[in-house]
Amino acid sequence: MAKQPMLKFVTVQRDMPEKRAADDRREDFHEIYAEFADEKAKEQASRCSQCGVPYCQSHCPLHNNIPDWLRLTAQGRLQEAYEVSQATNTFPEICGRICPQDRLCEGNCVIEQSGHGTVTIGAVEKYITDTAWEEGWVKPVTPKRERVESVGIIGAGPGGLAAADVLRREGVQVTVYDRYDRGGGLLTYGIPGFKLEKDVVLRRVQQLEQGGVEFVLNCDVGKDIEFEEIRNKHNVILIATGVYKSRDLQGPGAGAKGIVRAIDYLTASNRLSFGDTVPEYDSGELNAEGKQVVVIGGGDTAMDCVRTAIRQGAKSVKCLYRRDRDNMPGSQREVQNAEEEGVIFEWLSAPKGFAGDPVSAVKVQKMRLGQPDATGRQSPEPIEGAEVDEPADLVIKALGFEPEDLPTLWNQKELEVTRWGTVKAEFTTGKTAMDGVFAVGDIVRGASLVVWAIRDGRDSAEAILDYLNAAQSVAAE
Residue 358: is the preceding peptide bond cis (ω within 30°)? Predict the structure, then answer.
């Protein structure tokens, strides 16, 4: 069982005996709960077989030394466990919460494969890092020595933040530019708070700020500042924008009121949790309360939307996906969570059009799986005559994200992109064809996992250090 963050109670008056008694009970509860969580973490960690071929480690994009920090946790050596975990992962408490462990480390656990249930690696990772923050083991970002070179990072998501951490520890001057008013990117505004508490993200941003990283927020490159201006300010530029362009729906009625993008819906919900004023929520445009909600898509973003709608008090929530359950691109664990919360999944169902304006129904085409496509997945085919209307007051499009047209937006025609619009860059270094310009994360890979963005950010930061050192050597000759 993962240890939950301690609840903070604010008491204005403490002179009443019953209030003091209540406070004492709360403290006792936290002490008991902490011990229980500690024992559960040790119990789970001790189940690790310490196998000769740790598939959990090899299937982690960061190649975290999972067996070692599990062994240390089982021995009660939590600070050492945290240090081992932190050595390869900039944000272990975030990965512990949102990584699809069922597809990565836990899904490849030897014990899981033998039918005895996986070691709950993600929960233990979350627990030891939350404990590290509570105990003060998480140290400030402290440069070994200051350097004169500077790096401008465009994007304050996981890839950009991971790179900023590595570079700042080496003394490089780092400035992060981001279009939003808070750092974290999709960690802050795209992932619901019930999966990733926002203070968990923002304390990492604060840690970087305290270590000397400068954040320039509410800054949309290409609008508020030109790319060339940023490039002229820094020795190196790292593009870590992520992908924010939503895939759209076609068909009659697709432009009706009440059909919204997942990114807008989730951002509004997350802004509300910060206490921000969100007019689109107050007006009902991005609020599911009392509505018949239909979410279209089968990835993790779709799961975030359906589970958010449940929490907002939707009358009903359905998810339409054109393939079957076995072919869902998102986490099966997330699907199970959604079902337990009351979400109804309509498999082999694709939107064909929409009725009403505002929307009143989704016209659904029933599908079957045909022959495999080039990737080996069976292609969905329409079943002739099998069409139904699905009532809906709010339709959320969660069909995935594509890259924005950066060469045009930034007036940088020489910035090479692939036929999918992603930036052309070396996967191992992030180096692009433009001198001193690197790129990482989803803007290179396409929409992918947070853990891959962290990996890319760390790897590219090392390559940037090599680039700066080489330039320094040339200048010294």
Answer: yes
Q: Between vectors from CA 294 to CA 336 and to CA 292, what angle results, nearest 5°?
A: 105
10-residue averages of pLDDT along the chain (477 residues): 34 35 44 68 92 92 96 96 96 96 93 89 95 95 95 98 98 98 97 96 98 98 98 98 93 96 98 97 98 96 97 98 91 92 97 98 97 85 96 97 97 97 96 98 96 98 98 82
DSSP code string of 201-230:
HHHHHHHHHHTT-EEE-S--BTTTB-HHHH
| Element of type H or E holding 351 | strand 349-355
Amino acid at 397: K
Buried b (16+ CB within 10 A) or exposed e, 349-370: bbbbbbbeeebbbbbbbbbebe
List all residues 6 or more positions away from 330 whose beta carbon is below 8 Å from its beta carbon. Answer: 100, 298, 299, 300, 301, 302, 303
Amino acid letter, 140: P
Say how far apart CA 257 and CA 264 lie, in whole Å. 14
Pairing of strands 316-320, 437-439: unpaired
Q: Terminus-to-terminus CA distance in the chain, angstroms?
A: 58
* Cα distance between residue 354 and residue 448, in whole Å: 30
What is the reported pLDDT for 229?
98
State pTM to two decimals.
Answer: 0.90
Tokens representing 8 are 């903070």
Please state, in angstroms and rounded to a whole number, the distance separating the CA atoms of residues 313 and 187: 24
C-alpha 217/C-alpha 157 separation (Å) is 12
List the structure tokens of 393.
Answer: 């007051």
Q: Is residue 150 helix, strand or coil?
A: strand
